[in-house]
Write a structure and sequence with these properties.
The complex is a heterodimer of chains A (336) and B (469). Chain A is built from ten helices and 18 strands. With 336 residues, chain A is α/β, with parallel strands linked by helices. In chain A, helix 5 crosses helix 10. Chain B has 17 helices and ten strands. In chain B, the strands form two sheets. In chain B, strands 6-7-8-4-9-10 form a six-stranded mixed sheet, with helices on both faces. A four-stranded mixed sheet of chain B has the order 1-5-2-3, covered by helices on one side. In chain B, strand 7, helix 15 and strand 8 form a beta-alpha-beta unit. Chain B is elongated, with a radius of gyration of 31 Å. The chains are: A alpha/beta (336), B alpha/beta (469). Chains A and B meet through strand 5 and strand 6 of A and helix 7 and helix 9 of B.
């Protein structure tokens, strides 16, 4: 059982898939089954939001269920709680609600299957993780999402496990390149501590950070409207914080600026970057900087070499290729 | 009218209500739905409970208890919706059952914490803050007797369920998915039967639970009121046995708050009124509008059963408070200030003519039209207010109002020869806000004095002075 000991070093670990069917749920279930054989380890588990794979109404594919063992704490929505195939004890109910009802914190009395749902924004997610710790969870696992629809970011957990695979691309090179790009984005430099507090809870808007570290609202409604507000963006210097996502449009705009080597863009965390790898790379090459408020501690990558259409990549080749670029443990769960 | 509607009308009332420390959502909801009352007995009984709570928290040991109670209150869920489902014979799910159990346990905790509250209440109100006994509800939902705020369909409810669950566990361990699934369905069926049974048993206690919700809300509200009124020196109003209203050292809390923050002096005022129409005159910035707003605010506080910001008060109860205060433009679309004001005034007149007792507060009647007709309108309005059972206070800058009425004048500027120029900020210190009875029909001419103190263009003011001569 590799990387289980590694997981136990952290108080919270998120599981993120680069695409549907890259094996995130298998990874999560694998980790859960390993952890339950560790005596005296109490596991808590929740999810981010309610979107993503669970409610796959479009493809009608089965919703992936999580298999938890006796004593595991879990948080899910009222709606999913009713669908559980497990005996479990309700411990508390949230005051706030999601579109699938309020969040239920419960403890498994028997082993069985549950569907997870969770907080829909980062602040609430932090609270739910804390709640599980309050109920004496030693480690909290978070079923995360890489989605621009999600306001909850998995980066707030102490560690992250990324799942990738043929579902992302059946072209080995593309798959490796895309995975490597996400990995590199998780390794971006984080901003100075004094700014972290100021920036982490800002939910909307675009800000300048002046030479004294003061954060000034630039009053630009959306980064998508950057063209209309380009006169304003550098009015307080070249350090800009974007609370939402950044796209190729912004990078294209920045690349043609004079003094590009002075420009420093800060985003919340790597999940906010929705740009083509080549675009970001050319921005870097010209001297542009990109930083994050919340660094991500990625501790392992799992691969699923089979695509949903049935195409199979060679597992060993895939892992070897990834290892050429990425210096962290990479596994195929099914082969451990 | 509810408190929620009243705070929309009066921002001073909103200012006060927002400062009440209410801890539960039940309390907040109940507070906002407090009704405007005209019943002396009901209001007096509210006063007695507030006083009881004040006595209770005046003992240091009880302050600790109260903070424990409040901690529990802050976690309270409103289960009214769930109780309605029960009443409609619906079967509750685990989440709803959990909520009822959590509610009942929290209630019993509060009950045992403030077990002696009735000792502080008068005989007639002894039971007002006592939560009904919900032990039977807890028993239904706590078959294992653990007294924990947790819930599931316990094995203790049914031997059959216990057996089925064991078999289900075994099937799962053996990876016999088909068997496990069919056993799962069987346990679900048994669980549903138990939920039905529990729902039926609980139905009997819906009324007790509803009472408990009300009492919990009351406990939260009354302690908040008791604490707030004590801290801010609000007093219990005394109901007048005659037609006389009288306030001693009346304050307007939002203004007091602002002045205290700026380290400035606040001058409370005394006022006595009867149902003879009252006409208030006084210089600009002399606090006439604040006077009206204070009377309005106090009348609300009185009729919602609260205490009031004064040293002493004899009060009456009225049907409603009718006001014409502020700039009326925009209120009725497309109408001028004057037109909107006069329409509003007409509504007031129609109501007063019906003979019920109202408190009528009119600020600078007809100020936006020509002074000749303005004076006539004020006179005519006061005339209509005469010999009615309503209480009216009208302010004006107009001289020559002839109707017989009770005339009050704000004392106004304190003569101070050393000071020739003032900034806007200094003015309040130069004004005596107290009210004196005035026999004259002439209003003080202080507009020019005020303007010159403010350092306004001399030529402008001197010319005006000459014209008056």
């Amino acid at each position: 059982m590799p990387f289980i000991d590694e997981i136990l070093k952290y108080k919270s670990v998120s599981f993120v898939g680069m695409e549907k069917n890259t094996g995130k749920t298998e990874t999560l279930n694998y980790v859960l089954s390993c952890l339950c054989s560790y005596n005296g380890v109490r596991v808590g588990i929740t999810s981010i939001g309610i979107d993503g794979e669970k409610t796959d109404q479009v493809t009608k594919t089965q919703k992936p269920e999580i298999n938890i063992s006796k004593g595991t704490l879990f948080i899910t929505s009222e709606h999913f709680y009713k669908q559980k195939e497990i005996v479990s004890n309700i411990l508390s109910i949230s005051k706030k609600g999601t579109s699938l009802g309020r969040l239920i914190t419960a403890e498994a009395i028997t082993q069985g299957k549950v569907l997870l749902a969770g907080a829909s924004n980062t602040i609430w997610l932090k609270e739910t993780i804390k709640e599980l710790h309050n109920y004496k969870a030693d480690v909290v696992l978070v079923d995360g999402a890489l989605s621009r629809k999600s306001f909850g970011s998995p980066s707030i957990t102490d560690a992250m496990i990324l799942s990738t695979g043929a579902a992302l691309s059946i072209n080995l090179n593309t798959l490796v390149q895309k995975t490597n790009f996400v990995y590199r984005m998780t390794q971006l430099e984080s901003i100075e501590k004094s700014l972290t507090k100021k920036l982490q809870d800002i939910e909307s808007g675009i800000y300048a950070i002046d030479s004294n570290g003061k954060v000034i609202d630039l009053d630009i409604p959306s980064i998508l409207m950057i063209e209309q507000f380009k006169d304003r963006i550098f009015s307080y210097g070249k350090r800009i914080f974007v609370s939402g996502i950044i796209t190729d449009k912004l990078i294209d705009f920045l690349k043609v600026q004079k003094n590009i080597n002075e420009i420093e863009i800060t985003v919340k965390d790597f999940t906010r970057i929705f740009c083509k790898p080549e675009n970001i790379d050319s921005y870097f090459k010209k001297g542009g900087k990109l930083k994050v408020v919340q660094p991500t501690n990625i501790i392992a990558i799992t691969v699923n070499p089979t695509s949903p259409s049935g195409y199979n990549l060679n597992s060993k080749t895939l892992i070897d290729e990834l290892k050429k670029h990425i210096p962290i443990p990479i596994y195929n769960i099914k082969e451990i | 009218m509810t408190l929620k509607q009243a705070i929309e009308k009066h921002n001073g009332l909103k200012f006060i209500v927002e400062q009440f420390n209410i801890y539960s959502s039940i309390g907040r909801k109940a507070l906002l739905s407090t009704s405007y009352l005209k019943d002396k007995a009901l209001l007096s009984s509210k006063h007695l409970i507030i006083e009881g709570c004040q006595n209770y928290i005046s003992e240091p040991i009880n302050i600790k208890t109260l903070s424990k109670v409040r901690k529990i209150l802050s976690y309270f869920n409103d289960i009214s919706g769930t109780l309605n489902l029960l009443k409609q014979n619906q079967i509750l799910d685990d989440v709803s059952l959990f909520e009822i159990k959590q509610f009942a346990i929290a209630c019993s905790k509060i009950k045992s914490l403030i077990f002696d509250i009735s000792n502080y209440l008068p005989k007639s109100n002894k039971e007002d803050l006592s939560i009904p006994d919900l032990n039977n509800v807890i028993k239904i939902l706590d078959p294992e007797g653990l007294l924990l705020s947790q819930f599931y369909i316990y094995n203790a409810y049914s031997k059959e369920l216990t057996e089925k669950r064991k078999l289900w566990e075994i099937a799962k361990k053996e990876n016999n998915e088909e068997k496990a699934f069919s056993l799962y369905l069987e346990t679900q069926e048994l669980e549903d039967k138990i939920r039905e049974r529990l729902s039926n048993e609980l139905k009997e206690y819906v009324d007790s639970l509803k009472t408990a919700i009300k009492v919990v809300g009351d406990i939260d509200i009354y302690f908040a009121l008791a604490e707030y009124f004590q801290k801010n020196n609000y007093i219990k109003p005394v109901f007048s046995t005659t037609n006389k209203i009288s306030y001693k050292q009346l304050t307007y809390p939002p203004l007091l708050h602002r002045l205290e923050k700026e380290n400035k002096h606040y001058q409370p005022i005394d006022i006595t009124l009867t149902n003879k129409p009252c006409l208030v005159t006084g210089a600009n910035m002399a606090g006439k509008t604040i006077l009206l707003k204070s009377l309005w605010l106090c009348q609300y506080l009185i009729q919602f059963g609260f205490f009031i910001p004064a040293k002493k008060a004899q009060v009456i109860l009225v049907e409603d408070i009718l006001t014409s205060i502020g700039d009326h433009q925009n209120e009725h679309e497309g109408l001028s200030s004057y037109a909107s004001e006069i329409i509003l005034l007409n509504e007031i007149i129609q109501k007063v003519k019906q003979g019920k007792e109202y408190l009528v507060l009119v600020d600078e009647l007809a100020r936006t039209t020509n002074p000749t007709e303005g004076v006539a309108l004020v006179d005519s309005f006061l005339n209509i207010m005469s010999n009615k059972s309503s209480y009216s206070i009208t302010t004006t800058h107009y001289s020559g109002i002839k109707t017989e009425c009770y005339r009050l004048r704000v004392k106004g500027f304190i003569p101070n020869k050393t000071q020739t120029k003032l900034s806007l900020k200094d003015i309040p210190n130069q004004i005596d806000y107290s009210l004196i009875e005035d026999k004259e029909q002439k209003v003080p001419n202080e507009a020019l004095n005020l303007a010159s103190l403010l350092g306004i263009d001399e030529e402008f003011i001197e010319k005006a002075r000459e014209l008056i001569k």
